[in-house]
Amino acid sequence: MTTLRHFETPLLKTSFHPRTEAANKLWSWGNWGGYTTALTFEDLSMEHSAIRNTATVYDLCPMIKYRVEGPDATAYLNRLTIRNAAKLSVGGVHYTAWVNDAGHLLDDGTLFRLAQDRYRICCQERHLNWLLDSGHGFDVTITEETEEIAALSLQGPTSAEILRLGGFGIDGLKPYRMAEFALGDGWLMISRTGFTGDLGYELWTTPDQALALWDRLFAAGALHGLRPIGSDALNIARLEAGFVITGLDFTPADTCLREDRLRSPLELGLGWLIDWDKGHFTGKAALHKQRATGTKWSFVGLEIDGNISAEGAILYHDRKHEIGVITGACWSPILKKNIALAQILTKHLAGVNIWTEIYALRELHYEKLMMVARVVDRPFFNPDRRRATPPGRF
Prior knowledge:
Number of strands: 19
Distance between the termini: 41 Å
Order of helices and strands: HEEHEEHEEEHEEHEEEHEHHEEEEEE
Largest sheet: 6 strands, mixed
């Protein structure tokens, strides 16, 4: 791995930066894990529309990636994560999470089984020290490979057709499966995964093949509405899909300063991930106790009256008793609804009128709005095309 002088390079450039830089008409950039990442390229509404109506690409290079390999790789991952890695077959992907000994959530992410004894973990935050410490006693090697993998998310209804036109036979690829293809002098792994809740794929290759991959996709997508998107449009899509994101919907336990802000998978609506029968894993005893006694907090989806986004709003019972907070919100263009994700005290979930305190900026002045919120099922948006195999031709 190349040694980087981070103090001399405040923000690193990804393998796709020559293309994203040229496309970023607004010059709107942000920091993702120490990398320069686009927030909005040209028009936020058009970028979101492309996710739901045509196709988009999003630079995934800053996503943290760890390679886990060795004879004990499966046993190690079963100790580390709350889901059963042994049930994941080679060529499969699943969503998972990991906690500390007290059952508090550290991070969530996707686990790829690349071979019988080799996996890849993809996540939002860096956890190398925790992963290495958790490997004590296991015959396993854990390596960060973020800089070794160039990754691109291709999402939207026409994404499958673009891959077909690009020469990649993905018709038999089912959701949460992956396949490998030739790309120039190298390789391309395509997984049917994504963070938009729509038909889509994630493409994984080496940095030297990145620009050729980008150009090949845009040549194939010229008549299928392909456009790059930034993090702002992706955030709207992930809210519509009801997906949790680290640092926004919860604070990782290893960086959380206030004890009352710590959350468990059960409190974040991720209890369905836990395999209680797989044997011991880190945090199992604490989670088992919490399951028996019940959770103080719950994570829910909300529909809110009006059309003003409720990002960061406080939730109230009877307009005066605080009962929770909204962690992510937007006006959904595809649903034509005001939606939100929220942490709320469990005891207030049933039979209580929930009010949302929203401050709307109108001509330089904020106006306080108290709007009614209703708990609804997630995901908010869940199209059939996301699961169809082979994907339809849009």
